[in-house]
Specification:
By secondary structure, the protein is an all-beta fold. It has 3 domains: 2-62, Roll (SH3 type barrels), CATH 2.30.30.30; 65-125, Nucleic acid-binding proteins (OB fold (Dihydrolipoamide Acetyltransferase, E2P), Beta Barrel), CATH 2.40.50; 129-185, Nucleic acid-binding proteins (OB fold (Dihydrolipoamide Acetyltransferase, E2P), Beta Barrel), CATH 2.40.50. It contains no helices and 16 strands. The strands form 3 sheets. The protein has a 6-stranded antiparallel sheet, with no helix packed on it. Strand 10 and strand 11 form a beta hairpin. It starts with a strand and ends with a strand. The model has no long low-confidence stretch (mean pLDDT 88). Its main location: cytoplasm. This is Elongation factor P. One of its GO terms (biological process) is peptide biosynthetic process.
Length: 188
Amino acid sequence: MANTSDIRKGLCINFNNDLYHVIDFQHVKPGKGNAFVRTKLKSITSGKILDHTFAAGHSIDPVRVERRNFQYLYSDEYAFHFMNNETYEQVAVNKEMVDHPEFMKESEQVEILFHSEEERPLVVELPQYVELEVTYTEPGVRGDTATNAQKPATVETGAEIRVPLFINQSDVVKIETETGNYIERVKQ
């Protein structure tokens, strides 16, 4: 058993009969009253984000998780299939356990969080940025760059994003997976 002084970003805890990932936290010691810890927790099973305040010294139940590197192979109607890079063992993961699957292409390297004691996958995390080829976008109009105007574009995984007007079909762009925002055009 641990207490609130052990809370840190990335810690996985058992809270309200669910597994939560600590996204952010802040230890607060007001001038009057008792100290407390404000946390932002993300449910591993549902993806819901919860703000919760723990009293200082409150007991928490940490869960040991392991991060393992996997390669995305393919998907079917029920699950995504991955291969362990070290043992070549394959694992199928429910589609709900993957954050932002629209940016995942075959052979992409991902991290899967495993519950250490139960040896079961909890969540699939994509890299922070991915590079994808633009398969379709309308041509930009010359001289229309006075504002930060953007246009829709479809990338090779089928996801639709917003890109600047100078991006053309077959350009490779860097995308932030968490937000789906365009970052930059990749030089080739």
